[in-house]
Design a protein that fits this description.
With 231 residues, the protein is mainly beta. It is built from one helix and 18 strands.
Length: 231
């Protein structure tokens, strides 16, 4: 009897999987445990956790999915995990919308991004332009790199991943090598060169309680050289 029940459950699961794939228009392959098909096959709803895999290397794990076929838009909610196997990137959020035609991913709530070099970005929302390899983060942004030993706080940051360039917009605080505390605006971090700079007026405090007021500052992190115009 137990074996028969297991066979029936297995059959139902495979049926759901078949239906999900059939209505996914091959843009996504869905592996879910419960499914609803609405609007004459145009709307696919996946429930009770599952995975959506795109044809361009994106894997999305979530509690629920809603896919609109004619718009090629996928919404995922609840413990969402996005794995970009091509760009080697992982994104977490409460709510994600993937505009597949435009290759744009929007997140909302508890957003976190992890790259393959150990850097983590936390924010309220992300806009990830997959084809351009650009991530914009907004709202209580925190960037942590434990390998390079820096932390950046701001409300708006754009990460040009292929160039390893980070640009903040507005007020920015940074802690570099647990030694320097920077308070500035519109900061640029070149990760390959490990160079932090801004043309704005900047207040700097080191771990020996020394203060610096500079404009057009540049800190060469690897060389431990600080340059700028004294105010």
């Amino acid at each position: 009897m137990k074996n028969n029940i297991q066979k029936i459950l297995c059959y139902i699961f495979l049926l759901f999987l078949f239906l999900a794939n059939a209505y996914g228009n091959q843009e996504f392959i869905f592996n879910v445990t419960e499914v609803e098909i609405k609007e004459e096959g145009n709307k696919f709803i996946g429930l009770n956790k599952g995975t959506a895999t795109s044809n361009d290397g994106i894997i999305i794990n979530a509690n629920t999915f809603e896919y609109i076929k004619n718009l090629n838009v996928l919404n995922a909610k609840g413990d969402v995990e996005i794995i970009d196997t091509v760009k080697d990137y992982i994104i977490y959020a409460d709510d994600v919308t993937y505009f597949k035609n435009e290759e744009i991913i929007l997140t909302n709530g508890n957003s976190k991004a992890i790259d393959n070099k150990g850097s983590k970005i936390y924010a309220n929302t992300f806009e990830y332009k997959k084809n351009l390899d650009i991530l914009n983060a907004k709202g209580n942004v925190e960037i942590i790199d434990t390998v390079k030993d820096y932390i950046i706080y701001t409300d708006d940051v754009t990460y040009f991943k292929s160039e390893e360039r980070i640009i903040t917009k507005g007020d920015t605080k940074a802690i570099i090598e647990s030694k320097y505390n920077f308070k500035s605006k519109n900061v640029i971090l070149l990760r390959n060169k490990m160079e932090l700079s801004s043309s704005e007026n900047t207040n700097i405090k080191d771990n020996k309680s020394q203060f610096y007021n500079l404009s057009n500052f540049k800190y060469l992190i690897n060389d431990k050289k600080l340059r700028g115009e004294i105010l």
